[in-house]
Design a protein that fits this description.
The structure is a single chain. By secondary structure, the protein is of the alpha/beta class. It has 16 helices and 19 strands. A seven-stranded mixed β-sheet has the order 6-5-14-15-16-13-17, with helices on both faces. A six-stranded mixed β-sheet has the order 8-2-1-12-19-18. A three-stranded antiparallel β-sheet has the order 3-7-4. Strand 18 and strand 19 form a beta hairpin. Helix 1 packs parallel to helix 12. It is globular. It starts with 7 loop residues before the first strand and ends with a helix. The mean pLDDT is 90.
């Protein structure tokens, strides 16, 4: 352990990444204070309508495993070995995520996962959690944090884990761009019982829009609409909502008794990508750093938002092990992590187009079957992009390099086969 003497660290944001990071830092002997603008969710309940059930995969599980939290989390999760496509005419098509159909991503509610991580952080004697502390001021030169309750705190190291709309990032004046999609999202529910496969991620692809649904332990499905924002506004009466769902999602419509009420009550959330550079600012008395969505928020279409944030914690922990002190570790962390964050941000946007437009096409299904065939024929040598992203911890940027090498190799093999067939044909004609 090379990160030096125990240090006092202020983490702003007691969400998924903030709580997990607190656990990693406390394990190293640092004193951590977690500040959260909301009340304690264990008492107030999770915020409804904006959660988007999470798809937890290997990168996130690897982080949890390092802290001994993986089994506790998976006890509340539902494995999903593939996705079920719903056509307008009711036809169902199951697409396994892996060639052997054994690997799965795991559906878990954000609220349940946050509770487990919050309890783990709060149980550590080196962690103090302060709720109802909304950050309103930050002065790296004076070393002060100011909150809306009138409290002012001193800190020499502040880590912003407060999400895509990070107050830490804004107050520290760390330059960032926010690219917002014209699409938004809204959550709905299909209550139990229902006839749909309980161990699958359900997708209703409809061209420019889609609906997805993830299973819950009580048998219900949490649905999320991903539509152009203008489409949400157009359905302004219960009758229009019901008529639209009956036409576009007929198999789901019959199973949603509270559709009109939920549609009216639940807000439309925004989908954005955040690029920040740099991730660290050093003042006279305080160093400010960003992690997770505060540094690199991505859209949810590869199921990697939380997984990527958890992997941030693993990488920072690794940098603290290797570097000489916290300051050097933060520099190393940004240098290593930013190329990977940029890669998954781009892939997540690309996957949105794939999920809404391509997954139901014959060409897409044929390509997936070909990928799985190559994986069975060349185990370990050929692995699809999806499996490398979801079921390994190969760095995101390295995944892209590996896919490029695989494509060149497949093209070379295909050319050799075509050439061999041509020569055999020529030889056969000359005999």
């Amino acid at each position: 352990m090379r990160d030096g003497a125990p240090q006092e660290v202020a983490i702003v944001g007691a969400g998924l990444v903030g709580c997990l990071l607190a656990c990693f830092l406390a394990r190293r002997g640092h004193q951590v204070t977690l500040y959260e603008r909301r009340p304690d969710p264990r008492e107030a309940g999770a915020e409804r309508g904006r959660s988007i059930n999470l798809a937890l995969s290997e990168r996130g599980l690897d982080a949890l495993r390092r802290l001994g939290l993986d089994k506790r989390v998976l006890a509340e999760a539902i494995p999903m070995p593939g996705r079920m496509m719903h056509a307008v005419d009711g036809t169902l098509t199951f697409q396994p995520y892996s060639a052997d159909r054994r690997r799965a991503i795991n559906s878990i509610s954000r609220g349940d996962l946050n509770r487990v991580l919050l309890e783990a952080a709060d149980a550590h004697p080196s962690v103090t959690v302060r709720f109802d502390h909304k950050l309103t001021g930050l002065d790296p030169d004076q070393g002060t944090l100011t909150f809306d309750n009138g409290r002012t705190e001193q800190a020499t190291l502040v880590i912003g884990a407060d999400g895509a709309y990070s107050a830490v990032r804004a107050l520290a004046e760390l330059p960032a761009t926010r690219d917002q999609l014209d699409h938004g999202y809204k959550e709905l529910t299909i209550p139990a019982p229902h006839p749909f496969e309980p161990g699958a991620l359900h997708i209703w692809p409809r061209g420019s829009s889609m609906m997805i649904a993830l299973p819950n332990p009580d048998g219900s499905l949490t649905c999320t609409l991903f539509w152009p924002k203008t489409d949400f506004a157009a359905l302004d009466t219960p009758e229009r909502v019901s008529a639209h769902f009956a036409q576009v999602y007929p198999d789901a419509h019959a199973l949603m008794p509270d559709l009109a009420q939920e549609y009216a009550a639940n807000p439309v959330g925004s989908l954005l990508t955040v690029h920040t550079a740099p991730w660290v600012r050093r003042g006279e008395r305080m160093t400010v750093a960003l992690i997770g969505d505060a540094a690199h928020a991505i859209v949810p279409f590869y199921g990697q938002g939380a997984n990527c944030g958890f992997e941030d914690c693993v990488e920072l922990d690794r940098c603290l092990e290797e570097a000489d002190g916290f300051d050097a570790a933060l520099t190393l962390f940004e240098r290593r992590r930013k190329p990977n964050a940029d890669t998954i941000a781009r892939l997540a946007l690309d996957n949105f187009v794939e999920m809404r437009d391509k997954v139901a096409s014959r060409a897409f299904l044929a390509r997936k079957k070909a990928e799985h065939l190559l994986e069975r024929l060349f185990p370990g040598k050929y692995v699809s992009r999806y499996e490398l992203i979801s079921f390994t911890t190969v760095p995101y940027a390295e995944v892209e390099r590996r896919i490029a090498r695989q494509n060149r190799w497949v093209a070379a093999v295909a050319s050799a086969i075509v050439l061999a067939v041509a020569w055999w044909t020529i030889l056969g004609l000359n005999q």
